[in-house]
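Supplementary Text 2. Reproducibility record for the structural model of the 332-residue chain.

All settings were left at their defaults, and a single model was retained for analysis rather than an ensemble. We include the record here because the model underlies the residue-level annotations in Supplementary Table 4.
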Amino acid sequence: MGKNSIEKQNYANNPKVLFTKSGYTRPDLNKLAIFDYNKTCPKDKTAIFIDKIHNKAVVDAEEKFSEKAAANFKKALILNKAKEHNEAIERSTLRINGKIENFSQGPVYDCWVLTGARALASPTNGAEIIKNSISQNKNGRVTVKLPGYNESYTFKSKQIIKAEDRLSSGDDDARVIEMAVEQHRLKLVKSGYNILEENKNDLIDPDSPLDIGNAGEIFTALTGRNYDLLSEVEPIESSTTDWADHFSSKKNNEKYLSLIQKNPDKYATSISFLKERGPMLYAHAYSIKSVDNYSVNIVNPLNTSKEVKILKPDFLDNCSEMIMLDTSKKNK
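Retained model, structure tokens:
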């Protein structure tokens, strides 16, 4: 048995230390000396424990792996901080306070949704209903409850901000109501439900689910109660219109305006007009803000920052449909 074999046996059976000048590499056994563990290692030599001797390639690979792992961890940390930063920006950009403030309708034909929300926000009880319907958690996610349908929908801040490209701009609370109603209608589409029961030809368009509707649907969605379609006036030019019914409806509308004037903090009201006349657009929904002895102040969802004053005679002559909800009644 050779010298090296004897030395290898000694290494395995005794707690000895090898030292060499060659540094942290696998040493040449012929150039190694053996000394007791308790003796001092010469200062100009490097002590290497046998169980710590590795192939340099293995050591380099381990070091490279550790460096890569550290770099990946650092990268993940940076990305996570960036994500948290972006979410913080989104939360700060998003303004949810449970109030319907000024907004402008977008390219989607959902004036009825926005008008319903705007009308309901006018009376005190209605404003409280909206406030209780919208909530935001610490992560910035917003939940809208639709008690009338026993449903709720939650949206991320990023979704709400992005939706401004196609839905309303301005007030974020109004937009999340649009988004919730849109999801509700898409759910109806999947179930095959026809939203307009009186006209089986008018189905919800899955590509544009917010088309066709009236503010009463929003009253029902947010309160759980049915709205009152108080009057629906047909144009007197129509050959199928009875003049007596037409003027009777106008008289009823005048009565309803009187109710709103006497109880401004009680009713949420939406109206539409027979024909385009001045600021009154055809096939468009408005909310009534206030009524006085001579005029009716309405709010156009295209721009709620400006109220439109219509003289009572002009209003009554052109009013097509009036939908009213008594907000003083308790929800179901």
